[in-house]
Specification:
Elements lengths: L2 H30 L6 H8 L3 H7 L3 H27 L8 H11 L4 H14 L3 H28 L2 E3 L3 H17 L8 H14 L1 E3 L9
Antiparallel strand pairs: 1-2
Protein name: HTH tetR-type domain-containing protein
GO molecular function: DNA-binding transcription factor activity; transcription cis-regulatory region binding
Keywords: DNA-binding
Amino acid sequence: MTVRNQVARVPRKRSETRPRILSAARQLMTERGLDRVSIEAIAEHAGYTRGAFYSNFASMDELLLALYEQHSDELISELRSSTNDVSQPGVFENLEAAVAHVVCALPFDVQWFRIRTNLAAQASRDPKLSLLYLERESALREQLTPRLMEVINAFGCELTVDPDTFTRALVAAHDGALANSFADTEPRGIRVVVCTAVVLGLTRPAAASPQPRK
């Protein structure tokens, strides 16, 4: 094997380490709870040493925030796809139908909900982690808000509150419904009902806007 081939293979191998560690952490935290998972356990579950962990993450907090960002990217991708559908004329009869479509397109991710709940609880006890967590929450809302506004505007409506408050309310409603729907045979049902209620309660027909699509 030439030196050139050896060099070419190293980045590929390293590029696999970080995702495998994140995947192992997510699985273990779901099974055991965030407080019961150690760096050593994550590294071992991923098939690496403790040193490999620290080559990719400076601390457990950094790993947790990386998990948060990973899930946020997945969420935004799903939301982008579903809101693109809403922008097509004639696809949805009204705003309620569009909201139901968007909510149903979001993954029912029990694993992530448990991790996020644990992360929020830990952040409430750790000022440094709390600051970083709130920054990630704010960044996620900044990405969510324009996509949500596309749905509202597509049906000739406007908000009765500022956009950030609207997004906060909708996320809180969605997460609350998610927390109470693990045992439901149709978990998306309550999420659709609650999110639709928030959207309809915080919007109104725009004073001067195009007619809603038929």
